[in-house]
Design goal:
binds 3-methyl-2-oxobutanoic acid, TIM Barrel, 8 strands, eight-stranded parallel β-barrel, globular
């Protein structure tokens, strides 16, 4: 599907209406202008400037090192490429935990300096004050529960979360709390499908799943993973729509061959 310039912008209200009519929501990550432009034209509803930029753009092992300044750089590039999609930006590790005042300042910088439309942060009750304070400034907030990668050193592994009753019950309480506080959507990462179903049915706001199964109100993937730019990351939930690593490598090898052999540029490719 290609999208014309007059198409209505996706807002948080559009997303809630989609959930109400049972229409699935699409979200993908974007970190730069060119890819954001493609995702937007393809009709994806939400572009997440994820702190996964720390992994796929910067090559870090975890999402922890990326800074607020770096997130703002990625987000402002994405915003310039988008005409229709809602641009949601991750608050990076250290920019919202512990102090709701710091959280609000971080969110305001993202909105002002990048021109983003909403922020996302990880956690439930522990970040309730930050969520409340950011919302009080009129900034839409997306929650993120289940496997929250900024807490990887607490979890110890990237395995499925909330399989046990205690953790599942906390997740259900947190989801309700985030809805009551006023979040417009919640990402549910790597939890059992049955739990995603229960949570999604209990909320009026949409849930967006990643490794959360078929019952979420929408789905998100890391674009570099679904396009096969990354190769080593192969969890069960990931569907690869392309093998871009191999395709790009082939093209670059061909370019090198052509330059070295004198085939490129030819007489039509010069002035
Ligand atoms: O940073 C990110 O890409 C995310 C998605 C995995 C939801 O938070």
């Amino acid at each position: 599907m290609s999208v014309s310039k007059e198409v209505k912008r996706v807002t948080v209200h559009v997303l809630q209406a989609m959930k109400a009519r049972g229409e699935k929501i699409t979200m993908l990550t974007g970190y730069d202008y060119s890819m954001a432009h493609i995702l937007d034209e393809a009709g994806v509803e939400i572009i997440l400037v994820g702190d996964s930029a720390s992994n796929v753009m910067a090559g870090h092992e975890t999402t922890l090192p990326i800074t607020l300044d770096q997130m703002i750089y990625h987000a402002s590039s994405v915003v310039r490429g988008v005409h229709r999609a809602l641009v949601v930006v991750d608050l990076p590790f250290g920019s919202y935990q512990g102090s709701s005042r710091v959280a609000l300042e971080s969110a305001i910088r993202i909105m002002k300096e990048a021109g983003a439309h909403a922020v996302k942060l990880e956690g439930g009750e522990e970040v309730g004050d930050s969520v409340r304070r950011i919302l009080s400034a009129g900034i839409p907030v997306m929650g993120h529960l289940g496997l929250t990668p900024q807490s990887i050193y607490k979890f110890g592994t990237y395995q499925v979360r909330a399989k046990e009753e205690e953790e599942a019950n906390k997740l259900k309480r947190d989801a309700k709390l985030l809805e009551e506080l006023g979040c417009f959507a919640i990402v549910l990462e790597k939890i059992p499908a049955a739990l995603t179903k229960e949570v999604s049915e209990s909320l009026e706001i949409p849930t967006i799943g990643i490794g959360g199964g078929m019952y979420a109100d929408g789905q998100v993937l890391v674009t570099h993973d679904m396009l096969g730019i990354t190769r080593d990351f192969q969890p069960r939930f990931l569907r690869r729509y392309m093998e871009l690593f191999d395709a790009i490598k082939l093209a670059v090898e061909q370019y090198c061959t052509d330059v070295k052999s004198g085939d490129f540029p030819n007489e039509h490719e010069q002035y």
